[in-house]
Amino acid sequence: MSSRVALLIAALTLFVAVAAGAFGAHTLAKQVGPERIAVWQTAVQYHAWHGLAIFGIGLLMRIAPELRGLAAVAWCFVAGIVMFSGSLYLLAATGMTGLGLITPVGGIAFLAGWATLAWAALRA
């Protein structure tokens, strides 16, 4: 992944996070209970935080191109958003609890991304 691609993914990811937050607050909240809205809000929070992290990684790729592993960090965050936030979005919207089995895998992807970033920083 290049810096340009990371920044593009970050922009699109954050666009979707804002849209998801608005959908949850203005549409979904009228259709589901507070417990499922809380799940939706957790998904939006992790989605947005890691979208911002991808943005930071894209900038870091430009500022410090010698840092190795940054593309892997960004891909881990993308995978985490899809699996963690995506599964929580589906759970909140549909009530299908079986989707919760995917959520921890997404959490592990987030952790792997942060660990890889720490490793890259230590090697710098």
Would you mind describing this structure in some detail?
- With 124 residues, the chain is mainly alpha-helical.
- It is 81% helix and 0% strand.
- The protein contains four helices and no strands.
Low-pLDDT runs: none
Helix content percent band: over 70%
Overall pLDDT: 94
Task: Quickly give the structural class.
Answer: mainly alpha
SSE diagram, text form:
Layout: H1 3-26, H2 34-63, H3 70-94, H4 103-123
Annotation keywords:
124 residues; 4 helices
In short:
This protein has 124 residues and is an all-alpha fold.
